[in-house]
Amino acid sequence: MQRGPNPRGEGRGVGPDSARGFSLLELIIVLAVTVVLTGLMLPTLAQVRENVNRVLCSSNMRQLGLGMTMYYRDNRDRLPHAETLAGAEPDPGELMAAHQGYGEEEKWDGLGRLYSEGYCTAPDCYYCPSHRGQHNLEDKRVHWQIRNRWSPPLYTNYQYAGDVYWGQEAKGRTPRRLRQLKDGERLVLATDGWRRLSDFNHSTGMNVLRGDGSVRWFEDSEADPLASHIPGEGGGGGYYRIWELLNK
């Protein structure tokens, strides 16, 4: 016996042809909620990414610190030499240079000596993942393996402190006194870059590598921000003020 239609509508919505899609209003509501939630989450996600980058940055510095310690022991208690500090008027901004470039086929300098002499041979360790300026790893990777007299200067993302004192502690001392690892945590070996504003890796402070191998975060001061002391393209005396703040 054939059954007639179900007057109560029982059994409806069971077949494949009975699937019901979203209405236009429902789609608009879902999209609106998604946009609002994304807007709320973006600042949090950006901060999480920056925190991860800080950790990776500090890991890079620890590798450089390990390389410096080995270099120091193998070279009669001397840190890697920085040519820019050898003159009468040192240019601290050039302490970010790993290779002098143009006409200097084998002129590795400062942190670059760790690379050329086998103490830290991974180019990744010389770059901060938060860096957004022109000196980034992807653009410069090939220059680490291939250097010749036509190659441009090669800059890292980290500010080397040098092998001699050049700040306030260097005044009145000629020749400049060598910096020693025995000074431990009071000795700054390297920091995040501050050669130019475009080299400033983090917006609210910087990682600092100390003589005992530790890396600590230096929180920026709202009253006296580090970026306000970074010289422009013409250079300036702001480097000395930054160094004073870091050594406090």
Your description of this structure?
The chain has 248 residues and is of the alpha+beta class. The chain has one domain. It is 30% helix and 10% strand. The chain is built from four helices and six strands. It has helices at 24-74, 112-116, 137-145, 238-246; strands spanning 97-99, 154-155, 158-160, 188-192, 205-210, 215-219. Strands 3-4-5-6 form a four-stranded antiparallel sheet, with helices on one face. The chain is elongated and about 80 Å long. The chain starts with 23 loop residues before the first helix and ends with a helix. The model has no long low-confidence stretch (mean pLDDT 80).
In short, what is this structure?
Helix content is 30%, strand content 10%. By secondary structure, the chain is α+β, with helices and mostly antiparallel strands.
| Termini separation | 97 Å
Strand content: 5-15%
Order of helices and strands: HEHHEEEEEH
Number of strands: 6
Please, how many domains? Answer: 1
In terms of per-residue confidence, which ranges show pLDDT below 50 for 5 or more consecutive residues?
Answer: none
What order do the strands of the largest sheet run in, or round the barrel if closed? 3-4-5-6
Largest sheet: 4 strands, antiparallel
Q: What's the alpha carbon Rg, rounded to whole Å?
A: 28 Å
Q: Can you tell me the overall shape?
A: elongated
Structural class: alpha+beta
The average pLDDT is 80
Tally the helices: what do you get? 4
Which percent range fits the helix content?
25-40%
